[in-house]
Design brief:
9 helices; 6-stranded parallel sheet; Rossmann fold; alpha/beta; 340 residues; 29% helix; Dihydrodipicolinate Reductase, domain 2
Length: 340
Amino acid sequence: MTQKIKFAVVGCGHIGKRHAEMIARNTECELVGLVDVKDPATLGIEEFKVPFFATIDELLQSDLEIDVINVATPNGFHAEQGMKILESGRHLVIEKPMSLTKTDSEKLIFKGLQKHKQVFCVMQNRYSPPSVWLKELLDTGTLGKVFMVQINCYWNRDDRYYKPESWHGKGDLDGGTLFTQFSHFLDLMYWYFGDIKNIQAKFADFNHKDLTDFEDSGFVSFDFVNGGMGSINYSTSIWDKNLESSITVIGENGSVKVGGQYMNEVEYCHVKDYEMPELAATNPGNDYGAYKGSAANHHYIIENVVDVLKGRNSITTNALEGLKVVDIIERIYELKVQKG
């Protein structure tokens, strides 16, 4: 219980450095290694002063003592790298999405069970005060039966984001708009309301034909298995800057809306015999910048890993939940393939 948990991080981009920073700050953790294919001199990781490796294989073949390895690489690498980590006998922390197919996610879960190792999926939006508040409101039945849910995700992702040298926008590494941009909000939807069925969808590519291999916008409607109906309306074709990410819930006892750029603000709450509590401050959203919005919650992920491995708590987002998000996105995108 008193020993520090030793972490390595694979992928030293924007989010990978955030993982490393949160590990280094946690007094119960020790960062012991970093991996990236790029020249370390170009990555801005000098502050960490730990061994650096060009490949995950070099890391796993080293004599470093490692308990947990965090994967923060392009989406298309998650499954292969996750399997190598679990096969080596280390616990796995894997950034969203868990993989790009349900089958690969199932393989990761099976390997984790086979090796008796934990698989943690990074869905840090669950920690924001409005997310926690809405989850409690739903779990206590305060809203009564849920009739309708509408999720709107309207962001700007233009040539400032989809750069030619980037993995963003590439079909095999990115996977699609729902995987990279909006899977956090699909995770929140599943966390709140459970699985979906009777999916219908319409997709469009308004202004990303020269930037990405996939759609930039979509309307998706469905029924919840547990009752009620819902929709997701999303686009990355918003001009200049992000507009919003919001969820509106219509229930038999009232209605609520959580909005802002990252579902980080309660914009409306009118519920029978209920007084809205004062919530803790939420980190503001941003478009492409540093560690604002949901990325500012990564310290909770590292704390949860420590708590779980030291037997103090359960996993916030377990591998089965990570799989369900991939499964839901895959089922939505199957409609795109069927319609050609």
